[in-house]
Amino acid sequence: MEGLQRCFVLHSRPYSETSLILDVFSENHGRVSLMAKGARGKRSPLKGALQPFTPLLMKWSGRGEMHTLRHAEAMGLAIPLSGNALFSGFYLNEILSRVVEPETSYHQLFFDYVNALTDLAQHSNPEPALRRFELALLDSLGYGVDFLHCAGSGEPVDASMTYIFREQQGFVASLMKSNNLTFTGSDLEALATRQFSTAEQLKAAKRFTRLALKPYLGSKPLKSRELFMLRTRKLTQ
Question: Which Pfam family is one of this chain's hits (predicted)?
Fold first, then answer.
């Protein structure tokens, strides 16, 4: 039997009449699939605990792809997310479920995830937290890119110059007009430090992370993104 682990539920779905199948992100074992037997039963003490964004202590047993949940308890109240922050939290959970390899330790990424949820709860604009987490996720996946040097010359980037992103190579100084693959040196410096002081830098960071994450996410649409767009359309009608 495994010891107690700090965890968050990424996603759950009903199984049989009273059970749940959980997709969990744990501190030491990464993403784990758990069978929570009887968790939906009327008298189950777990009924209200196994929710996204609630910090949990969990214990499980068993071998293979699906483990059996043996114990779960909330470490505290759920991180309070609402509105855009809530949809942003669902997005983080979905990309973790889609991208992170099961049964693989992502110790630093676990704390990056906690920090992202905390930032979402504390700030009205979710974009900086999302971009910082996406960059942390890329680092954890081994996606190495040098934001601070031109891949062609090796020279430090110039904040006033334009650079084009070339997959498998990096950022190369360019005279091309602005397009989806071009970034200013100022954009790259913001990406390197993960500090975005302007709306333009945030937009550039979003372009880059979408380009970089696309091979990992594949062509299947993100449900969280579709739900967010649907909510946005309803609010503007």
Answer: RecO_C
